[in-house]
Write a structure and sequence with these properties.
Length: 314
């Protein structure tokens, strides 16, 4: 893992593990269980409802009046000549795998927060709720060169370790970083496929920079046997670059000025910004997983409360 930077006083730019721990009590009204409020984004037209915990096979027993006929095991019934039913019990918990993007592309924001901060806070809120509802929490926190893998566990210590990794990578981000990327989003998705075999909740908190055809195949595999939710973190400047605006963009050492009043330049920038979102929406419709939009202009908790249909969100 990268060396932790000194924690600054401005939580709009960096957040540490202590800050992320404090989000727990504030997020208790949220739920990632199958039953969602009527206004929840997970009840949307193209969003799949959460399947929740799976079922464990408990026993075979003879049929009794009142049993659901759909549970009859016809093979055993035919072999024994007596109706038998299969009895299942709900799993005590299920794993949740949270993939948290803290690459340099996330260290950007023209409004209130950095994209990296919104992703970190949203992932922390989800982690608190997963553990609070009795499920196992784990995930993969990744930057351009660093990656921390946490196997899902149902223990407060597991949550603490996960939030520590998120805070460490978040605080290491700065505008002067010049990483030679050794970790890609596709690398992380491939690891998620290995970890989330079936009936897991997989949440990805990212700006999805660098997605391609291989990403589509990995999203397809993850959504086939699991509940997949993409939390698309964006800055308003990527959705509405107004013409006639001059922007100065810096990477920490060098800077360039972009004049969006130049028609051809404005159109090319706008097209590039829209392509990524269009690709995600296409895959959402094709494979049935929901996309939750998160902007840098509003606190993460307020957005999640509104998007998941709870009062008090904005």
């Amino acid at each position: 893992m990268a060396q932790t930077a000194t924690y600054p006083s401005d939580p709009r730019i960096h957040v540490n593990a202590e800050h992320l721990q404090r989000l727990g009590p504030k997020s208790r009204s949220l739920s990632l269980l199958p039953r969602q409020p009527a206004r929840s984004i997970l009840n949307g037209r193209h969003a799949s409802r959460l399947r929740g915990r799976g079922l464990n096979f408990e026993e075979l027993r003879t049929y009794m009046p009142g049993d659901d006929i759909r549970t009859i095991d016809w093979k055993v019934t035919a072999r024994t000549g007596t109706p038998h039913v299969r009895v299942y019990t709900e799993e005590r918990d299920r794993p949740a795998l949270l993939l948290v993007d803290q690459r340099v592309s996330m260290f950007y924001g023209t409004e209130i927060y950095m994209k990296s901060v919104i992703a970190a806070e949203a992932a922390a809120i989800a982690a608190h709720r997963v553990l609070g509802q009795g499920d196992r929490v784990g995930g993969i926190v990744f930057g351009d060169t660093d990656l921390a893998e946490h196997h899902p566990q149902r223990r407060p210590a597991a949550l603490t370790r996960f939030l520590s990794s998120v805070g460490e990578l978040n605080c290491s981000l700065n505008a002067k970083l010049r990483p030679k990327p050794t970790v890609t989003l596709n690398d992380v998705l491939k690891q998620a496929v290995r970890l989330a075999h079936t009936n897991a909740l997989v949440c990805v908190f990212s700006d999805f920079d660098g997605i391609n055809d291989r990403s589509e195949r990995l999203f397809s595999r993850l959504s086939r046997s699991n509940d997949l939710i993409l939390f698309n973190v964006f800055d308003p400047s990527s959705r509405a670059l107004l013409p006639g605006v001059k922007l100065t963009v810096s990477d920490g050492d060098n800077q360039i000025e972009i004049d969006s009043s130049i028609p051809d330049l404005h159109d090319r920038i706008k097209s590039a910004m829209e392509d990524r979102l269009s690709q995600l929406n296409l895959w959402s419709r094709r494979y049935g997983f929901p996309i939750v939009p998160l902007t840098t202009a509003v606190p993460a908790l307020d957005q999640l409360l509104k998007l998941f249909g709870h009062p008090g969100g904005r």
